[in-house]
Amino acid sequence: MAAEQNSIHGLWRNRWLFILAATGSAVGLGNIWKFPYITGENGGGAFVLVYLFCICLIGLPVMLAEVMLGRMGRQSPINTMTAIAKDAGANRLWSGIGWMGAVAGFLILSFYSVIAGWALAYIFRMAGGMFEGASAEVASTTFGNLVGNPEVLLAWHTIFMVITIAVVARGVNQGLEKAIRILMPMLFVLLFLLLGYALSSDGFSQGFSFLFSFDFSKLTGESIVVALGHAFFTLSLGLGAIMAYGAYMPSDVSIGKTVVLVGILDTLVALAAGLAIFPIVFANGMEPGAGPGLLFQTLPIAFGQMPAGTLFGTLFFVLITFAAWSSSISLAEPIVAWAVESKGMSRAHAATWVGVAAWVLGIGTVLSFNLWSDYKVFDKTLFDLLDFLTTNILLPLGGLFIALFVGWVMHKSDVAAEVRMSNPTLYKAWMIVLKFIAPVAVAVVLINGLL
Ligand code: PFF
User: pLDDT, tens digit, for every residue of 139-186?
Assistant: First the structure.
C-alpha cells in the first residue's frame, strides 16, 4: 500500500532534519508573541495549566497521529487523507480533513505574515538604537505608531510573504534547513539571556507568580477554548502542516520519540518567553492584558536598559523573524504540495499563487489595526475573527477528526505497523486518547466555549 511510496517532494535526510523542521514549524510567533499575550488576557496561571494539560493530553497524541498519517500517505494532506480513507474502505468525505486544513493554513498564513512583519520592522527599529534607555511610554508609542500606519505594515507584510514564498517555491531542503540549524539554537540562547535579565529584575517574583499561581476563578469558558486552540496552534496541529512534514520523514525514524521532543522544545520556548516578558511588565507598571502588542511593548524596554542591548535586541528580533519564517513555510506547504501533485503546477508556480492570495487577504489584517479597527463583528476585528475562526475552531475540529479517523476508521494493523511503538501500554493509552478522550474533550470545549 501507500507506505511503500516515496514522496515526490523529497525526504528529510535524517531524523534530526525532521525534528528541526517540525520544531521550526512549531516554534514561532505562537510561542514568543501569542502565548504571553493570551496568557495575560486570560488571567495567568490557571490558563497556563489548562494549556499544558491540553498539550500533553491532546496535542502530543494528535501530533503522533498526524505524523503517522503523513508518513503513511507520503503525499499532501489532501491526497494523503483521500488515499488512506480509500485503503481503509472509508467514506471519501474523510478527505475533507485535508481540505479544511489547507483552508485554515491559508487563512492563518494571511495574518501570520502581517504579525511577522512587525518583528521584521523591529529589527530595524532596534538596530537604529530607538529604544536605548526607553521608558514604557516610548515603547508603547513606538508600537502604536507602527501598527497605526497601514502603508508601513503593508510593506513589511509584503516582504515577509515574499521571503516565505521564495523558500516554499524552492522546496524546503535548500536554504531554510541550513539557516534554522544555526538560528534555532541561537534563539534558545538569547531567550535564556533574557530570562537572566528578567530574573534580576524587580518584577520577577510577581511575573513568576502570575504565570504559575493557579487561580481558577479567572478561567472562563472562552479561556479554555483559547487554551485548547493555542495548544493546536503552537504545535502546528489540525491543519496538515505536520502531516505534510511527516510525509517527508524517513521510514526508519521513531515517530513517538520525535514527537515528544518537538513538544518539549516548543513548550520550553513558550514558557521561557512568558518568564522573560511578565517580570518586565510588572516592573514597569504595565498591563499584562495589553493584547497583541505585549511583546513589542515590553522587551524593547529590557533591551534598552541592558548593556549591549541594541545588539542583543536586534539579534532577538532577527531570531523571532526566523522562527516565524520557518513556521509560515509550513502553513503554505500543504496547499502548495497539493497543487503540485494534483494540478500539475510547478512548485514555484503553486507557491506564487498561494502567496499572492494570502497576501491580498492579509491586507484585511493590516487594516484591522488602523483604518478598520472600529469595524467589528461579535466585538472582533477582522484579524480577531480570522484568528478565532482558525485557531479556536478549525484547528481543534481538524484535530478532532484526525483523532476519530485514526482511532475508529483506520485498520489497526496499518496504524500499528506505521507507528511501531515498542511499549504496548503506551500504544493502548494513545488509542484511548484518540478514540475517546481527545474527541470528547475537543467537542465539549468547543460546544461550551462557543455557546
Ligand atoms: N506553530 C506556529 C507558531 O506557534 O507560531 C504557527 C503554526 C504553524 C500554526 C503551522 C499552524 C501551522 F500549521
Answer: 999 999 999 999 999 999 999 999 999 999 988 677 667 777 787 788
- The response to whether residue 243 sits with its C-beta less than 6 Å from ligand 1 reads no
Task: Evaluate: CB of 30 within 6 angstroms of ligand 1.
Answer: yes
Ligand 1 atom at minimum distance from 29 CA: 5
Q: Could you tell me the pTM of the whole model?
A: 0.94
Instruction: Determine if ligand 1 sits within 6 Å of the CB of residue 236.
Output: yes
Q: CB of 237 closer than 6 A to ligand 1?
A: no
User: 71, 418 in Cβ contact below 8 A?
Assistant: yes
CATH class of segment(s) 15-450? mainly alpha
Close Cβ partners of 306 (under 8 Å, ≥ 6 residues apart): 197, 312
Residue type present at position 60: L
Q: Which amino acid is at 98?
A: G
Nearest CA to ligand 1 atom 10: 236
CB 265 within 8 A of CB 180: no
For 246-281, write each residue's pLDDT tens digit: 998 988 889 999 999 999 999 999 999 999 999 989
* Domain range annotation of the chain: 15-450
Residue pair 326/176 in contact (Cβ under 8 Å)? The answer is: yes
**Which one is predicted more confidently, 190 or 35?**
35
pLDDT value at residue 306? 83
Beta-carbon contacts of residue 420 (< 8 Å; ≥ 6 apart): 254, 255
DSSP labels for 75-111? S-HHHHHHHHHHHTT--GGGGHHHHHHHHHHHHHHHH
pLDDT at residue 176, as a whole number? 66
| Span from the CA of 30 to the centroid of ligand 1 (angstroms) | 7
